[in-house]
Design a protein that fits this description.
By secondary structure, the chain is of the alpha/beta class. Helices cover 51% and strands 10% of the residues. The chain has a 5-stranded parallel β-sheet. Helix 2 packs across helix 8.
Amino acid sequence: MTFDIVIDTNVLLHASNDQESRQEDAIKLITYLLESTELLCVDPKFTSNETTNRSIIGYEYLLHLKHGMLGYSFVAKMASSKRISEISHSSNASISRAINKCLSNKHDRIFLKVAINSIGKILVSHDFTDFSIDKRKFIRKTFETEIITAKDYAYEENIPKEEDEEMLEKD
């Protein structure tokens, strides 16, 4: 079974930010995903061309990720290898109301709706302002969707971490 994942723009930005404490986790996530068969989820009408893209997630990626950044290269590679999954952000009225009540940022709502409608039901985000711990718990309980960090995803997927690599070298 192929899994899919939604990644908040901030995680992809962190991969290229030497001042970011979660840079290594973001890099490990990107590396793992490039080596896996997992799909990157976006909302419909995504293209890597700014003039033809109609996806909100794509818009955020194209606005913030610049040529030469690891996150930009990651999205481009996923697109060129046809590992982008376009997932609807449509939802019924009660789900939309609950999301609107929970999140004020319209783009964050799209990321969340795509995650809710995806197979994996995972949004990787380092945004603890809009996606506070309490909101993450509410979203998990209400929509059965996890909002986790790149490090959490690495742990969940058993991506080798430094301490794991050291143990493997001893064997």
